[in-house]
Amino acid sequence: xxxxxxxxxxxxxxxxxxxxxxxxxxxxxxxxxxxxxxxxxxxxxxxxxxxxxxxxxxxxxxxxxxxxxxxxxxxxxxxxxxxxxxxxxxxxxxxxxxxxxxxxxxxxxxxxxxxxxxxxxxxxxxxxxxxxxxxxxxxxxxxxxxxxxxxxxxxxxxxxxxxxxxxxxxxxxxxxxxxxxxxxxxxxxxxxxxxxxxxxxxxxxxxxxxxxxxxxxxxxxxxxxxxxxxxxxxxxx
Length: 237
Hints:
Blueprint: E1 3-7, E2 13-17, H1 21-47, H2 54-75, H3 81-85, E3 88-92, H4 100-115, H5 120-129, H6 135-140, E4 142-146, H7 178-194, H8 198-211, H9 219-234
Antiparallel strand pairs: 1-2, 3-4
Helix pairs in contact: 1-2, 2-4, 4-5, 7-8, 7-9, 8-9
């Protein structure tokens, strides 16, 4: 399964699988059903009011249909209601968050993707391109990924049972916070579950610099030692 490496707000890289064609089609259909339901509600609401002004109908019906996807993607960080329900999201292929300009490019080229040949162009492009990209994605350098569930935990969950015999190696760890320990654990989990050691390397260097530590311990062993030292020195604090 092809993946896209995305940088999180904690500066950790996580590999997300590309969204399947089925997920993308269902997400698109959900968005269209929402628009249809909204349009029906507007028509029923105005039917008895004898509204003949064309710009009122354009404002209430035309604009939502035209700008629905791009506005939701801009203000919902790459998701529309359909994408949110299908747990998919627009990201840039280089791993950085998509920008307003990226969303606008995808939206402009959606006229080609969805309204010529009834979406067949988008379907063929996603199926044949190898990176899950329709024409708009190719132009914007984006794709749509399937979000994987991130397990919530606290620093106290890293090691359930504190080793009472553990002798701390780096007493400077008391300068760290629970949030720092959680970030270290995220990096270790990414290394373990996805084989991506870059977050471990980056965090190791930052911890050494922050705490003025010099050690020859391998990065993974070093970070586990930091966590054990932290738990040992802060238990009951």
